[in-house]
Amino acid sequence: MEEYLEQLTSKNSDYFHTVIRQLTDAGKSDEEIKTILEDVIPSIVEKQKSGLTARALLGTPTAYTDQFIEKTTASGKSSDKPKNTNKYLMWLDSFLLLMGVLAVVNGAVGIFSKTPQTYGIVTLVLMSAGAAVVMYIMYNNYYKAQTEKNGSRWKSFAILTLAMFAWIAIFILASLLPKSFNPSLSPIATLIIGAAALGIRYLLKKRYNIQSAMDGSQRQN
């Protein structure tokens, strides 16, 4: 395994050094760690030639090591299985949550308003989708910002800032679309869409055990 470790890129090498440290801190023996990593590291060495990183393939170091560490609750029973950190599912989870909340609030306000105004459907979708991307970037860069050098923290901050400005630009442009491309729904319809989005999110989260991008507790070492 040592020969493959030497072939890792700097970024992937840092990733597996963190994984090894976390497994060691969890009480895993050298032999157990070798068994865990002997298949995955050669695979990463091969896939990094295509520009893929260990983080992109395996999730954060904490998420990866959690599946090999038995955690117990205060009662001494094993805790729930590790959260699913698939980036597409995490984005979808955030998208449905944001769209659900925005639509429910917007629809409810419209129902009780004398001059109801609801977001256009395109604005609602793009605003939720963009915000979900920003939330995933926050989640995905938090670990680096806490464990790596200042340069990495500043890089993460810059990426997040650019993403937020991009989201604001998308929201502004979407709101300027003509109503023929961005029709506004009735408050009742908006409310129903919001409730449906929240319901679908609940079912998906229950089915796939999706990690929430807003839950910082899972980001820690």
How does this model look, in words?
The chain is mostly helical and 221 residues long. It is built from 10 helices and no strands. It has 2 domains: 65 residues, no CATH class; 129 residues, no CATH class. Keywords: Membrane, Transmembrane, Transmembrane helix. This is DUF1129 domain-containing protein. InterPro entries: DUF1129.
Could you outline the blueprint of secondary structure elements for this entry?
Layout: H1 2-7, H2 10-25, H3 30-37, H4 40-47, H5 54-58, H6 61-66, H7 87-112, H8 121-147, H9 150-175, H10 187-208
Report the β-strand fraction as a percent range.
under 5%
Round the Cα radius of gyration to an integer and report it: 21 Å
Q: How would you sum up the major sheet?
A: none
Structural class: mainly alpha
Organism: Floricoccus penangensis
InterPro entries: DUF1129
Keywords: Membrane, Transmembrane, Transmembrane helix
Protein name: DUF1129 domain-containing protein
